[in-house]
Amino acid sequence: MFGAGTVMTSLTACGGGGDGEAAASGGGGGSCSVPIANADAPVVSVWAWYPNMKTVVENFNDTHTDVQVCLTNAGQGADEYAKFQTAVSAGRGAPDVIMLETDTVPVFALQEALVDLSEHGASEVEGNFGEGAWRDVSSGDAVYGIPIDGGPMAMMYRQDVFDQYGITPPTTWDEYRAAAEELKAAGGPLMGDLPANVPAPTVALMQQNGAEPWTYDSANPTELEIDLNSPESKEVLDYWAGLVEDGLIGTQDQFTTEYISGAINGDYATYISAAWAPGYLTGAGAGEGADAGTWRVAPLPQWDPANPVSVNWGGSVLAVTSQAEDPELAAQVAMELYADEPSLTDGWTSQTIFPLNQSVLNSQEFIDHQSDFFDGQTANKDVYIPAANAYEGSTYSPFGTTFYAQFTEEIAAINAGEKTGSEALDDLQAEMEAYAEQQGFTLN
């Protein structure tokens, strides 16, 4: 997936610097948000932010006499990454184990800020995960994280809207456009949305169409191939740009109150998202009151129905930092934390995670679970488990923050009618090539 070179990639654009308290927990020091159950055991410090992490750490500490976890919430996502980047640059202040979103792993691996877990028994847990989930954290023989959860993508849709306008869930993107045209002609809502502020799902749809935007490996860590403006990628972005131009979809930024209000009010017939989306929408107030029972989910439409491809958006891992006092012990924590049955069950039943551990994906309770959000639909069995198992993995950008920021600008230009999809990708290709060379990469 990525090379463990020494090229520096700043994440300071993600958020502010460290607040001191979080950094103090590195190496097992500082205060812990969950009590230590066995005072005589060595302590491994962990930064993580999921809502149920206190429960997860309590489960771990209560069942381990050989090691304990000191948990700190150093911020969610970007806030944590900014603090970690400060610690990496300073050479001190990082925790032993850190939760990272999967697509940020190569950014820190390139700075040699993460430990290769293949040297500390990672192969012992490889069988707990599917091929795609393991590829996402691997580079050749090296492994830089242990998967927790993922985001197999699908098409959520409003059953009430589809029923009102006689729409059948589309199975291809051609059918998706045809449904959007039917809705517009009948005075219905927008079919969906192309948000500039979250380019990751657009990248996933490019990969679904056979694109490989990034190619590199640990054997040649400073060599990189960038292919963002391939014919496969241009077909995808021109398709979505065409939907925008024809007024078939919206351009509202997602994860905003405006977008949530639109989703609840039925302004969008579909939400192209991931398996974690029901939990996100529920937490934001969707699926309640008049909105209750209106949502369903179907497999992601395909570019080539004869060759279906599953893709992923989101997910997280536990990685061991190069500042860990005892890498072997930290690796044990990364492999065993959020891996026990009580923690995994708490995670998926509370809609905190879509677990990637095969012990859950193969459990009858998870397979047959009837989703309240989807009005009793067995969404795991019907959609999400097949998508997770079919996912073959991705190669993520080695400088995710810069790439996503630039892609956001390009999608915004598309939404403003200033560029076609192809033009945006040609510009993005040139910008990323220039940036890669500035960072010391040799382009192939």
Instruction: Count all strands and give the number.
Output: 12
Spans of at least 5 consecutive residues with low confidence: 1-29
Beta content: 5-15%
Protein structure class: alpha/beta
Helix content: 25-40%
What does the overall shape look like? Answer: globular
Which homologous superfamily in CATH is the superfamily of the largest domain?
Answer: Periplasmic binding protein-like II
The major beta sheet can be summarized as:
7 strands, mixed
| Element-level helix/strand string | EHEHEHHHEEEHHHEEHHEHEEHHHHHHHE
- What distance separates the N and C termini? 16 Å
CATH topology of the largest domain: D-Maltodextrin-Binding Protein, domain 2
CATH architecture of the largest domain: 3-Layer(aba) Sandwich
Mean model confidence by pLDDT: 92
CATH class of the largest domain: Alpha Beta
* Count of DSSP H/I helices: 18
**Quaternary structure state of the chains depicted:** single chain
Radius of gyration: 22 Å
Organism: Modestobacter caceresii
InterPro entries: Bact_solute-bd_prot1, SBP
Protein name: Sugar ABC transporter substrate-binding protein
Pfam families: SBP_bac_1 (PF01547)
Walkthrough of the structure:
With 444 residues, this protein is α/β, with parallel strands linked by helices. The protein folds into two domains: 12-150 and 315-375, D-Maltodextrin-Binding Protein, domain 2, CATH 3.40.190.10; 151-311 and 395-443, D-Maltodextrin-Binding Protein, domain 2 (3-Layer(aba) Sandwich). The protein is built from 18 helices and twelve strands. The protein has helices spanning 53-63, 78-90, 105-109, 123-126, 131-136, 159-165, 173-185, 200-208, 231-245, 257-264, 277-283, 327-336, 341-349, 358-361, 364-367, 379-390, 400-415, 421-438; strands at residues 43-47, 68-72, 97-101, 138-139, 142-143, 146-158, 214-215, 223-226, 270-274, 295-299, 312-320, 442-443. The strands form three sheets. Strands 1, 2, 3, 6, 9, 10 and 11 form a seven-stranded mixed beta sheet that branches. The protein has a three-stranded mixed beta sheet with strand order 7-8-12, covered by helices on one side. Helix 8 (200-208) crosses helix 9 and helix 17 (400-415) runs antiparallel to helix 18. It is globular. The two termini are 16 Å apart. Mean pLDDT is 92; it is low at 1-29. It holds the Pfam family SBP_bac_1. InterPro entries: Bact_solute-bd_prot1 (IPR050490), SBP (IPR006059).
